[in-house]
Design a protein that fits this description.
This protein is α/β, with parallel strands linked by helices. 25% of the residues lie in helices and 20% in strands. It has 4 helices and 9 strands, in the order E-H-E-E-E-E-H-E-E-E-E-H-H. It is globular and about 70 Å long. The protein starts with 15 loop residues before the first strand and ends in a 6-residue tail after the last helix.
Length: 219
């Protein structure tokens, strides 16, 4: 059994994922149309590199000419985490991108004919019935067939984030967290007799921090 060293060492931040493509200009047009930020486009005598970053992401992608020996379209299971999968689908569809319907895992059945994703190869149509975090998906591909997946995450499981850090990477993500906290606080006020809670900012803050760190939520 391998023991995990809990002592924090140097930060190791995932920075780049290489995407194999056949036509750099076509791919540039596709990823720009997604609304991703173009960070670089430079070339030498026998190479070209382009870098794009998805909104709110700390990790970027690069592609181009002579960037990788991998076959175009061979990158699969590239996850894009979103707080609202329906809103994410609507935005890309509005940009003319073909996006699958939402789907969720088919119980404990993991082998089947569908396209692969984290939980297997059997897709059940529609959002997860309880809208469970990590459990709703949608997929799309770039022109070469590199496969992307939206995964809806509204709360992190324990141990998956540093409990001392609370980070929202965009105003949309923060707004979604505030809406969830607001709905939960409404139920809290009902249980408290419906009286106005003057300490609601503290309650919201506690809820949002614990939701992100995977700790038990306040009631």
């Amino acid at each position: 059994m391998t023991e995990t060293n809990q002592t924090r060492t140097a930060d190791m931040k995932l920075e780049i994922v290489v995407i194999p493509v056949s036509d750099p200009d076509r791919s540039k047009e596709f990823y720009a149309n997604l609304g991703w930020r173009l960070d670089a486009d430079f070339a030498g005598t026998d190479f070209r590199v382009m870098q794009f970053t998805p909104p709110g992401s700390g990790c970027s992608i690069i592609f181009g000419k002579n960037v990788t020996a991998a076959a175009p379209g061979s990158a699969q299971g590239l996850y894009l985490i979103v707080s609202d999968i329906e809103a994410a689908r609507k935005e890309l569809i509005g940009r003319g991108v073909k996006v699958s319907d939402a789907f969720h895992p088919a119980g404990d059945v993991y082998t089947g004919p569908d396209e692969p994703y984290l939980f297997g190869r059997v897709r059940t149509g529609g959002l997860h019935p309880e809208r469970g975090t990590y459990r709703s998906f949608a997929s799309f591909s770039d022109p070469d067939g590199n496969g992307w997946l939206f995964q809806e995450v509204t709360a992190r499981l324990p141990g998956r984030v540093d409990a001392t850090d609370t980070i929202f990477t965009s105003s949309k993500e923060l707004a979604a967290a505030l809406r969830r906290a607001g709905a939960a606080h409404g139920e809290h006020e009902k249980r408290s007799g419906g009286e106005y809670d003057e300490g609601w900012p503290d309650w919201y803050a506690e809820y949002m921090v614990k939701e992100q760190s995977g700790e038990p939520l306040p009631t």
